[in-house]
Amino acid sequence: MQENYHPNRREQFLWWLSTAETELLKDAVVDRNRHSIIGMLVLGTWGFATLAWSYFFSTVVSAWWVAIILGFFMGGLILFIDRALIKGVQKSTAFGWKPLAFRLFLAVTIGLFMAQPALLFLFEKEVKVQASIDNEIRKKTKNIALVKSYQNDKDELVYQKKLANETLNKYYQEMVYNRNRFIEETDGTGGSKKIGLKNIALAKKAAADKSANDYELVVEKLTPTIQYADSAIQSINNIIAKEQASFNQLLNTGFITQIEALDHLIQQNKSVAFRYYLLIVLLLLIEIMPLLAKYLLPSGTYKVKAELVEEEEIKLIKSTYS
Fold first, then answer.
1. Is residue 199, in this structure, part of any structural domain at all?
2. Using an 8 Å Cβ cutoff, are 27 and 52 in contact?
3. Contact, 288 vs 103, CB < 8 A?
4. Highest mean pLDDT: which of 85-94, 201-210, 241-250, 264-273?
């Protein structure tokens, strides 16, 4: 046993990550390496969490330095949670499994969420292509919904315009018919075919003039209706186009959009799905490895010393205040 062993800064940092007491661990030769291993696992989880959260925030904020700061902040929270849970592992007690069970639950919740940015990074090209396809589908769906919402109003306007045009066409056909009858009567090509019958020609002229006058009155009366219908239909089309354009501007390739695209890729491609779930398992293992290592590695002299020191402190406190 090396009683005067002095750990370097790297060892001290790794021991701090593993929640070990440096003064007790210096003389525990075998346990030094064990706690260094636990510290390196915690360091790896901390680094992974920081990178994953930084990438996540880079998809929702425009400034990269803000994403990095937030990533370090969230990574620090994960580090503190890991250290607290590792410190709480007590294999010798009946309740030593509780921190492990809680950490497993935490890994499934936080770990799965943190795995998403890493998976998006790995499948970046495929996800962007799928996100583009999904956005086009969203545009079409929105356009169909907009058209449907205004369809009743447009149908009513189209119907009014149709009735007006049918009425105009009816009066126009009648005007043309009476005018042709008058012309045929005057040039002898139709009607009585007797040029000398002036009364008949005059009567047909009067009928033609009346039809022309009626047509002009109908045109004057129905033109505003047709113009209003055209204007209202154009206004509805403009509203639809404006709302569609506003909706298109809202579409993006942010985090949620990419997650949905990744889900669609998983549903459509079995090879992607297999690698997705494989990576999920791997990333979850990264999350829970520090606690598993603390739980699975054998206990050494460090634990015995820690328990003895704690007992001595309790006895001392009791004797002092008794």
1. yes
2. no
3. yes
4. 241-250
Q: Closest Cα to residue 261, out of 109, 138, 112, 111?
A: 138
- The answer to whether position 1 is within a domain reads no
- Name residue 21's amino acid: E
- Determine the Cα–Cα distance for residues 322 and 317; give it in Å rounded to an integer: 8
Judgement on whether residues 136 and 251 belong to the same structural domain of the protein? yes
Task: State percent of the chain over pLDDT 90.
Answer: 24
Helix and strand element counts for the chain (H, E):
11, 0
Same domain, 103 and 152: no
| pLDDT over threshold 60, residue 225 | yes
Q: Is residue 3 part of a domain?
A: no
3-class state of residue 159 by DSSP: helix
Q: Which residues contact 58 (CB under 8 A, 6 or more apart)?
A: 64, 67
Please report, for residues 57, 308, 313, 315, 317, the alpha-carbon distance to residue 321 in angstroms, rounded to integers and kept in the order given: 52, 20, 12, 10, 6
**Claim to verify: residue 112 and residue 157 sit in the same structural domain:** no
Which residue range is the domain that position 111 belongs to? 9-122+269-321
Closest Cα partner for 82 from 32, 151, 17?
A: 17
Considering the domain architecture, whether residues 33 and 17 belong to the same structural domain is answered as yes
d(CA 261, CA 251): 13
In a domain, residue 261? The reply is no
The answer to whether the Cα torsion of 18, 21, 26, 28 is positive or negative is negative
Q: What angle do CA 15, 18, 20 make, to 5 degrees?
A: 60
Considering the domain architecture, whether residues 26 and 98 belong to the same structural domain is answered as: yes
The reported pTM is 0.60
* Domain shared by 66 and 103, yes or no: yes
Number of domains in the chain: 2
| Distance separating alpha carbons of residues 159 and 152, to the nearest angstrom | 10
Distance of CA 29 to the CA centre of its chain: 52
